[in-house]
Amino acid sequence: MPVPILLYHQIATPPSRKTPFRSMIVSTESFRRQMGWLKRLGYQGLSLRESLPYISGQKTGKVAAITFDDGFTNVHQNAMPILQEFGFTATNFFVSNQIGGSNEWDRPLGVLPATCMDISQIKQWLSSGHEVGAHTMDHVHLSQIPETQAFEQLSFCRKKLQEIIGESVDTFAYPYGDHNDKVRELVRQAGYIVAAGTERRRATGNDDLMNLPRLTIRRDDTWLHFVAKCLLR
Prior knowledge:
- The chain has helices spanning about 30-40, 50-55, 75-85, 120-125, 145-165, 180-190, 225-230, and strands at about 5-10, 10, 25, 45, 65-70, 90-95, 130-135, 170-175, 195, 215.
- It is of the alpha/beta class.
- Strands 1, 4, 5, 6, 7 and 10 form a 6-stranded parallel sheet that branches. The protein has a two-stranded parallel ribbon with strand order 2-3.
- Helix 5 runs parallel beside helix 6.
- It is globular.
């Protein structure tokens, strides 16, 4: 059975109109309703790591993988209690040089500042049953930098996160969904088991584990759009 892998960024009050990338901020109320729809439709929300046996066909059941890119503090504050309320787990992909920092990579684009989880919050995320994944050191376009730098972005990020949580970090998400054949090979060499991209469809056992598709959930998705993404794509 195909598995929807949902992609969120921030869970917070969306800013005013004309703010760049406003669509990437889903309100807390909308997120709670969406998790409620998953539950109502018989889905169990899981981290990416936990969903892999279902994607490969080793296990059967209705599951949806829940993922967050960038490690924003508002996910810890607003999404984590809702996940706990529904008994769901999720994966957060962290930018290691901005732990306790902010979305510096977005600022040149005019995106409003948003803080990233600090070490204590990352440990709370983990201890609540959620997964810690990697998103490079600096949120870079991996295909646009020299291979040696790309490998450092991948391997040093993984190393720092592993030092923080005391366990293996096996999942990765490509910043901007940017990758190619060489980048995917570097991800393997850096020790990751699975990597998530941004191709918009549900995942199956035929997919390359270095490029699993994800369905981006946006601010203006209605309940019908949300359900259609989970069930139809």
